[in-house]
Amino acid sequence: MYIKQNQAEQCSITLDYPTMSLSRNQKATYCHGLLQLTIMKYILKITAVIAALILIFGTVAYFVVNSGDNIKPLNLLANSSLWSRHPTRQPILIKNVTIVDTKTGKLLQNMDILLADGEIRKISPTGQVAPPQHVQVVEASGKYVIPGLINMHMHVIDYPNPSENMALMLTNGITGFRQMSGSSELLKLRKEHGLSIQEQQPAMFGMPGSVLTPVNTHNIKAAQRNVRQQKAEGADFIKIGMLSPNIFFATLSEGKRIGIPVLGHVTADANMIAASDSGFRSMEHLGLNYGELTACSTEESDLRNMAPKEPAILHYLPAFMDKLSMKLLQKTLMNPAVGTSDKEYQRISRIVRTFSEAKARKNARRYLANGTWQCPTVSHLRQYQLAFLPEIKMEPGYSYDNAKREQKHKEVTEKFEKELTPERKEILINAYNLQLKLVKIYDTMGIKLLAGTDDQNGNALQLEFEEFAKAGLSPLHILQTATTNAAEFIGRTADMGTVEQNKIADLVLLDANPLEDIRHLRKINAVIRNGYFYSKEELADLKTKALKMLK
């Protein structure tokens, strides 16, 4: 700081000891030091106030977040009246049905399927199965049967109303799901058989501990510690939410060292190919902030450097505020595109202009060689990136079933729409269409895709299928994203993913052939979960009751 001569004279008047003998330059130097000390005092005071507020706020947050309310919703799974009507199972004979072979796409017509004790006991041509006593006969002439659908990106048990949402999942043909967020408490509950997920509810296939963010993973040591702790607690995988590249790759390295899969979000400032080479198990949402499109650009390096970074302040929050920060982010997560800067829109436009199909294919070959899976969640991307389109507001899965959450959703959407110019809308539409093109390239190159909706009830799963169809995927490949591919990913091909003898009795009965038109997956006639039969009427009743409870 430079102080003029007259400022030095004014400063000297306030000094507590004689300075008359000092020269003007000496006085200026002295005052300069005095001002620096004064500024430092104020900075220290402000820092102390901020630290105190964080401590107070964090302490309150700790007790609020870690109160019994945090796990209370899980107790509803066992007690909800939604599930009280199925005290026992009985054998089921599905007669004269057409089986859709999800491996080959062949249709096996005029078949009988005998179910007992939650398993497929026998499959044979119609009339050759001797039905046991007290069997429930389901006449399925003209119907098509597929395996139960597995939604590979959901947030169910850590959100409110899991019981009601599981009921809605069944009405969408979902018999299993991958839980993409967790906590130490949830892992402990599962270990102690405290989740109370009943056998007629959709099955959960995998759960991590807390999603890794800058709040709970400040540095490399914290990343290594969290990976080891989550494995010890019984996590099935580590999910990265948002980490700077150096911490991201340290997490991958530690996961590989101790033998636990690492997957989730790759930020746009990270190297996608390096993540795949390092063993990243599955990439969700095609990367954050158009990360995988960035990797397909001829100007990838520059665009990575321009990509948004995580807010620095997150690194300074205490780790015990992690849960609260996630709760506070819920409204933001309703549409992550809100608040996108003009600089970022320019970057997205540049990503689209510099997209290289040859580079996309080259990347796909590397992903395939490394065994890196893709769960694009295009329905989710569509419904927030293009939320300004009138037709999207009418789509299944767009609106929240809970009135309060839907009101917040409307507020977020209105804010988003106010930020948009015609140019920005065009950029978003072009970028979304390019993401669909990338999905098609992945499919053509042989990468196995997973169907996921990033929601709590799976209402958008059929939309996910239909967006895959827009991308150019065949009905069989689309169906495989939620059946054979999902079963392979979770290591359960022996007992699910296809309609075969000795496999779990998770089935969906359809009124039309899904291989002719993927929209026929909406024409659900019945759902069988673990041998429990839900007719079309029972599914409608289940949906009505669940929605009433959610309101």
TrEMBL record:
Keyword Transmembrane listed: yes
Gene3D superfamilies: Metal-dependent hydrolases, Urease, subunit C, domain 1
Spans through the membrane: 42-65
Keywords: Hydrolase, Membrane, Transmembrane, Transmembrane helix
Molecular-function GO term, any one: hydrolase activity, acting on carbon-nitrogen (but not peptide) bonds
Limits of the Amidohydrolase-related domain: 440-531
Pfam family, one: Amidohydro_1
InterPro entries to which the protein is assigned, alphabetical: Amidohydro-rel, Metal-dep_hydrolase_composite, Metal_Hydrolase, Metallo-dep_Hydrolase
Protein name in the entry: Amidohydrolase family protein
